[in-house]
Amino acid sequence: MNTWMDTREKVFAYIREHRMLQAHDRVVAGVSGGADSVCLLFLLLEWQKICPIDIAVVHVNHGIRAEAGEDARYVEKLCEERKIPYFLTRTDVRDRAGREKISEEEAGRRTRYEAFEQVAKDWGATKIAVAHNSNDRSETQLFHLFRGSGIRGLASILPVRDNIIRPILCLERWEIEDFLTLQGIFYCKDATNDEDDYTRNRIRHHILPYAEQNIARGCVTHMNQTAELLAETEDYLELQTAEAVNRCIRSIKAPGSALQPDVSSRAQEVYIAVEPFLTLHPVIRKRLLYEEVKRLSPGQKDITYQHIAELLTLFTQEGNRTICLPFGIRGRRQYEQVILTTQTSQITKKTDSGMQTAVAMPLWQQWDPDMVPRQMKTVECTLGTLQYSVCEVPHGSEKNQEVPINQYTKWFDYDKIKKCPMIRTRQTGDYLTIADGRGGMIRKSLKSYFVDQKIPREERDRLPILAEEDHVLWVMGYRISEYYKVTENTKRILKVQLIRKEFA
Questions:
Q1: What distances in angstroms separate CA 123 from CA 25, 117, 126, one per listed residue?
Q2: What are phi and psi of 396, to 5 degrees?
Q3: Which CATH architecture has domain 248-346?
Q4: CATH class of 4-217
Q5: Which residues contact 483 (CB under 8 A, 6 or more apart)?
Q6: How far is Cα 156 from Cα 168, in angstroms, rounded to an integer?
Q7: What pLDDT shows up at residue 150?
């Protein structure tokens, strides 16, 4: 067991090492009332004795636990006794999670940081102090490792990020609890931390204790040392990548937004010179491409290194080729440069107020299911140009052999469609029909399908679908409904082809 003075000096050395606090800083501290945040507050007060800083406290009531009001009153009392400015934010995290279609854990995190930033702005704070500890860092490191991560993810939680500081990141949970016990400081306990509902809690309760007991004593300490080394490596590689960008990136064009009839689009282009790019170390090549593609994408975390590996072939293989990535991003070799482009589009219309809103577009303005509209038609959507037509199946043909598997060309039984199909984005109540594995079919909500396929949330609201009312025929670029598939009894076929966008 350390003395409380040992813990104090350890944290002070960590603050100095990472230059977290300077004289006359104004610091907003997030204090929940739990052991970590209470320890943070008392150590900031100790630092205040040797270095003049101003401290304010923000407490966020998430509206989940019945005991939350008691926690708020405890933190308020701590602040009253020590004449610390106290700010309380009340919110409904469950409601936010439902509205934004995110986990309660993520909704709580966003809410807390928004509250910290708002108070910091209003109070004129220069720093925001949060109470992550070494165990939190190890849990996050494992979480990122299991899901797949590069150096940045494995560096886990950083001591300093912009105006956010983590003074007790150097302490393990047992050191925090010992410090509070030795000082006779009370703290609140959150029962939800004892549950296994969250992935991080399962890592905390099962994986790290097992590693500590059966693999390596002091594993949290060792993992934090590794995280520190990886963070330093990441900083160095960032500098090298920035230099590489100056050498290789010829220009970046951002024409801005342009509204065409029914289509709103935003395009960006990045020009990368091939010759200087190939002189870079392979690690820097990958990082440069990753950073540029990430910048162009709306869902940064969904760009993988497999995508980057595909782009790399444009630099080493001759010929004018195009590679398609998520979110409408394209890589194209053009002589001695590779051009990265993106263009996101939505079917839109103007409202009376001038705002743009997503709308549905019918395949046919005048729908008659008894007619066979043989003439090919086209329509623009988010992913490109949609071409479609209807044809009668020749008598005696073997239909099942006529329908190849193709991601961007689909065939549907036209006679099963009773209402005019619409091209639109998703709506509440949308569903697909899928095979049940026993020769039958069952309904599956479109939301569940997106979750199962790990389609990023950022992409779901933009992804065009073809639907008959709330029954989805085709999630473009993904799958079609079993119900509309061509069978041996099909007499008329609706053929729909998506021609992916190419950019000049």
A1: 12, 10, 9
A2: 85, 0
A3: 2-Layer Sandwich (3.30)
A4: alpha beta
A5: 416, 433, 441, 471
A6: 15
A7: 80
